[in-house]
């Protein structure tokens, strides 16, 4: 019997936290109508809060989550007019929270060593994060970092590949956190385009 596919719970948690953040009141005037807003905004619903608590507990206990749950959540987000904004916010959340699992000593060493010595350590951490949190692989090709995700959770979630902004955002934020880079990220291959796998390329250098 084949075991069902799973993901790290931080992945669906990042999607839910992004929805909550985007849907939260932006000013005092909105805050006055929070009970009314709860009925209109998914991110303020009790259902989302309950799911956030559930996935937070799963993260704490290192329990995997069914991949189909993450896919269903991504498709729900994909129906929103601001889907791309939510996916990009979620990607930054996952990158930052996964980066925090890198030991403080390793982070400090990466930042204080010269680039030639620091980048192999940073690449090792990038690979660990991609494997654990994205079910993906990262490799270095010349001056670029390539993120390959064989089974994307968000690929079919929204039209015009908007869901792919999630992984693009993860990679961009990881490069910024690991080496201080802020270069462009290119979506070079996509399952939605019939190219067999989803892949992104980012500049791998310090600014």
Features:
207 residues, Muramoyl-pentapeptide Carboxypeptidase, domain 2, two-stranded antiparallel ribbon, 9 helices, 6 strands
Structure in a nutshell:
The chain is of the alpha+beta class.
Main β-sheet, spatial strand arrangement: 3-4-6-5
Quick one: overall form? Answer: globular
CATH architecture: 2-Layer Sandwich
Q: In percent, how helical is the residue content?
A: 40-55%
How far do the termini sit from each other? 49 Å
Strand content: 5-15%
Question: What is the multimeric organization of the chains shown?
Answer: single chain
Q: Sketch the major β-sheet.
A: 4 strands, antiparallel
- Chain-averaged pLDDT: 88
What does the model show?
It is a single chain. With 207 residues, the protein is α+β, with helices and mostly antiparallel strands. The chain has one domain (6-203): Muramoyl-pentapeptide Carboxypeptidase, domain 2 (2-Layer Sandwich). It contains nine helices and six strands. A hairpin with a 2-residue loop joins strand 3 (137-141) and strand 4. Helix 1 (10-23) runs antiparallel to helix 4 and helix 6 (83-99) runs parallel beside helix 9 (165-179).
């Amino acid at each position: 019997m084949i075991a069902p596919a799973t993901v790290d719970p931080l992945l669906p948690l990042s999607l839910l936290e992004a929805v909550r953040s985007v849907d939260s009141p932006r000013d005092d005037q909105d805050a006055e109508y929070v009970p009314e807003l709860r009925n209109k905004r998914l991110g303020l619903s009790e259902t989302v809060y309950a799911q956030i608590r559930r996935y937070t507990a799963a993260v704490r206990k290192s329990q995997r989550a069914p991949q189909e749950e993450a896919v269903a959540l991504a498709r729900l987000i994909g129906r929103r007019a601001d889907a791309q904004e939510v996916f990009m916010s979620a990607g930054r959340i996952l990158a930052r929270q996964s980066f925090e699992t890198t030991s403080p000593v390793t982070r400090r060493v990466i930042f204080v060593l010269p680039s030639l010595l620091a980048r192999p350590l940073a690449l090792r951490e990038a690979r660990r994060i991609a494997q654990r949190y994205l079910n993906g692989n990262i490799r270095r090709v010349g001056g670029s970092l390539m993120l390959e995700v064989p089974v994307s959770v968000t690929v079919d979630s929204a039209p015009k590949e908007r869901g792919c902004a999630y992984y693009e955002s993860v990679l961009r934020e990881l490069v910024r956190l690991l080496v201080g880079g802020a270069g462009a990220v290119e979506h070079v291959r996509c399952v939605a385009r019939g190219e067999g796998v989803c892949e992104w390329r980012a500049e791998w250098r310090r600014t």
